[in-house]
Design brief:
5% strand; single chain; Fumarase C, Chain A, domain 2; two-stranded antiparallel ribbon; mainly alpha; Fumarase C, Chain B, domain 1; 15 helices; two-stranded parallel ribbon
């Protein structure tokens, strides 16, 4: 079944090539397609295109289909092109000609648009929740190990004292900034394109404000041409936010791989969380973090990939856009898998607390000695030269203590402020509004 097909049978090779992975990807969109149809037909009833007695029948059957999707009992049958066709086919089988009325005033174009917006909105929420869980673990570990000193590096050379308090907290704050990106992506996603039809509106007196409220969108895409132009643009912006998170956790994963290396030896993991070698019995490989690193790198390529698919397309719908789904939809599973497993691993990491007692780290305290001399009245440049001479003639002695007090330093991590910054961003998403709207749609009369 194809919503667009007339009497001509499409060549099977053409059908296979043009459908591509749509049926596979559309299973992710299925519950959202039902929600969009429920809002649409509720609006159609308000303008007289569906009878008052017909609406509850259609809504209750759509609720049944939604429950079947949630339970895993829904599939797209062979010969059915997409989720939109499958839902309409089920309704028509169960309700007869009444099921055919749900497509009035819309096109597959705006069905796909609203499905993707609803899917993306839902997937962003899951990503935000998983990122918040990892953030909380990082803050907790930052506090737990704030007194454990490790070397800081520049140019991969030993530079100055750092701490695991700083290290864990740095990635927590990076995630907090990533949530700003995700909030912007969410706001772009949380606008209603339904009613734009094929991208040029409809001669029916559709009430697009009504469907916006029914689906819990913050607003609608006002201009119907722009609503269609949002296809691809939305995905590119959201993927940029995903890439921002991926950049954070990918870099963190690289640090872990280095820090577990025996030449660093700052941390380790329980044996059951590492893998071994087929010929080297001593190996404890950080495979999880290596795969996080690789997946994160792949995710960072996604915005560019979408941009290239969309490059040079004029306004209006083009089949090129279909391909975006194939990498965009699975990207959420990738980023959420990485966030969840990173959180699990970092809760169980074992920190080695006396690593910096090794003599090779002696000179990381050189700036501390320089600063101490400056505090005693010696000009900085003179102190710098004197300490350089001590290092050269092997007479350098490190200070016994490190005293950093300014904002964001070893002795003043400002984790509470970082937490407040994240909380402020999280409060702006307004997930409760969408929850209430969807719950109202699904409530049986």
């Amino acid at each position: 079944m194809k919503l667009w097909q007339k009497d001509t049978e499409v060549n099977k090779d053409i059908e296979r090539f043009t459908v591509g992975k749509d049926r596979e990807m559309d299973l992710f969109l299925a519950p959202f397609d039902v929600l969009g149809s429920m809002a649409h037909i509720t609006m159609l009833e308000s303008i007289g295109l569906i009878g008052k007695e017909e609406l509850p029948v259609l809504l209750n059957e759509l609720r049944t289909i939604y429950a079947e999707i949630e339970s895993g009992a829904f599939s797209i049958e062979d010969g059915v092109e997409d989720v939109h066709s499958q839902v309409e086919l089920i309704l028509t089988r169960r309700l007869g000609d009444l099921g055919k009325k749900i497509h009035s005033g819309r096109s597959r174009n705006d069905q796909v648009l609203v499905d993707l917006k609803l899917f993306t909105r839902h997937a962003i929420r899951e990503t935000v929740e998983n990122a918040t869980e990892l953030f909380n673990t990082l803050i907790k570990q930052s506090e737990a190990y704030k007194h454990v000193i490790i070397p800081g590096y520049t140019h991969l050379q030993i530079a100055m004292p750092s701490s695991f308090g700083l290290w864990f907290g740095a990635y927590a704050e990076s995630l907090a900034d990533d949530m700003h990106m995700m909030l912007a992506a969410y706001r772009i996603s949380n606008k209603n394109p339904l009613g734009s039809a094929a991208g040029y509106g409809s001669s029916f007196p559709l009430n697009r404000t009504m469907t916006t409220k029914l689906l819990g969108f913050d607003d609608l895409n006002y201009n119907v041409v722009y609503a269609q132009m949002g296809r691809g643009k939305t995905e590119k912006n959201v993927s940029a936010a995903i890439a921002s998170i991926a950049s954070t956790i990918g870099r963190m994963a690289m640090d872990v791989c280095l820090y577990m290396n025996q030449n660093f030896d700052f941390m380790t993991l329980p044996d059951e969380l590492t893998t071994g070698s087929s010929i080297m019995p001593h190996k404890k490989n950080p495979d999880v973090f290596e795969l996080i690193r690789a997946r994160s790198n792949r995710l960072q390529a996604l915005p560019n990939e979408i941009a290239l698919i969309m490059a040079n397309l004029p306004s209006g719908y083009h089949r090129d856009m279909q391909l975006i789904k194939e990498n965009f939809i699975p990207a959420f599973q990738d980023i959420n898998d990485c966030l969840r497993i990173a959180n699990f691993m970092l809760k169980q990491v074992k920190i080695k607390e006396n690593t910096v007692k090794d003599p090779k780290y002696l000179y990381m305290y050189s700036v501390e000695v320089v600063n101490n001399m400056v505090l005693q009245g010696i000009p900085f440049r003179d102190a710098y030269k004197q300490v350089g001479a001590m290092i050269e003639n092997k007479t350098f002695t490190a200070l016994d203590t490190i005293h950093h007090t300014h904002e964001g330093s070893i002795g003043n991590l400002m984790n509470k402020e970082i937490q407040l910054s994240l909380n402020k961003t999280l409060n702006e998403f307004g997930f409760q509004k969408t929850d209430e709207a969807i719950a109202h749609l699904l409530k049986r009369s």
